[in-house]
Structures are given as structure tokens and as C-alpha cells.
Amino acid sequence: MQCTATLRSASSWAETVRIYVAADIHGSSRAAAMIREELERHRPDVFVAAGDVTNFGPVSFARELLTGLPVRTLAVPGNCDPREIIPILGELEVDLHGRKVEAAGRRFVGIGGSNPTPFGTPFELSEEEIWETLRTAMEPDAILVSHAPPRGYVDVVRSGDHVGSSSVRRIIEEFEPPLALCGHIHEARGVVKHGRTTIVNPGAARDGHSALVDVDGDVRVQLL
Known about the structure:
alpha/beta, six-stranded mixed β-sheet
């Protein structure tokens, strides 16, 4: 199934950058194969892995998945990734957690883990930690990558509750990035707008989902 949406962005970008994003891989070898196939098919400028690369480990899976890809890659850990994944991401030169990185001529700012959950997963941060980490790195026109979605957007669980991060939402409201990529809530796959920002939750790669985003003056999203 493929869904396409075109949303107007306030960005002044002239050249198009193509981003392939996958989240919630959860150690699935089938998802890893899908990602490699989609990278070959769509030939993006940047691949973004938006967290939960593993399913509580092992971190060796992240090394296997992210080594030797034919495209510039950026990644943040998810709440189900052990914190030991961060040195691996750094060694592979793909780490975006708490960092600002330039790729394909665009700036990306990332935050891994998630706001607190009821499950005590390995990589959870307080809302204050999320806010302080992002506030020091974020800048206007940067693309935001967070494992957790902003509270109120693509974050509804089966109970009907919104469980996203209030700090991620605050960052979006303050900096108005043209694009925010997230994951975490498998059942909340979708594309929405909040002010000037297009927010994309590609769904769980473990379940065969991902997304392709083309950004210039517009933001065009294909949910794959």
C-alpha cells in the first residue's frame, strides 16, 4: 500500500533532498532486507533510522544493518534500544542523538529514546531532558528527527490516548522546522501538519512500513 501527500512548507530550500525514513525495525531481518531494497529502488540522498533499531538488543544487529549502506545514513536510538547502541552509532558515523549533523546540504537535529512509558524500557528520558537536549542543538530550518512523536500528533495508541512527547511538541512550536520525522507509536502511522511543520510517522518497519520524503519548497510524503 502506498499513500502520497503533498504539504506546503515554509522552507526556502531550492534543491530537492530525498529522505528515506524507517523506524521501529525491532531487530527484524525481514525489515532490514526491505530497507536495503527500498534504498536501491528509490536512491535517496539520506536514510534516516528513527529509532528502535533493535528489540532490547543485541546492539550487533545495528552494526549489521547500518554498515555498508549505499547512502548517507543518520540514526537515533529508540526506547527499546539499549543505551550501549550509542557508541556503535558513533563508530559508524551515523549518530544523531543529541546532535546537529549536516547531510545532503541540510541540517538534521536528533533525539533518541522516548518520554517515560509505563513499561520501563531501556532508553527513556524525562521531558526536561528531551527539552534541554533539543533546545541546545535545534535551529530554524533544521529537520527534526525524534523517536518519540510530538504529543497530540501521530501518537494515539489503541486506548485512544495521546502518548507523545510534550517537549518534542514544544520544540516544533518554537522552531517550526519544515519537517519532523518520528516513530515509536506503531499504530499511529501517518502524515500531519502542525503550523509550518510536516510531521511523519512512517509506521513500523517490522510490519513492512517506511516512508519517502522529498523536500524543497514543498514537502511530499509517500507512505510505503
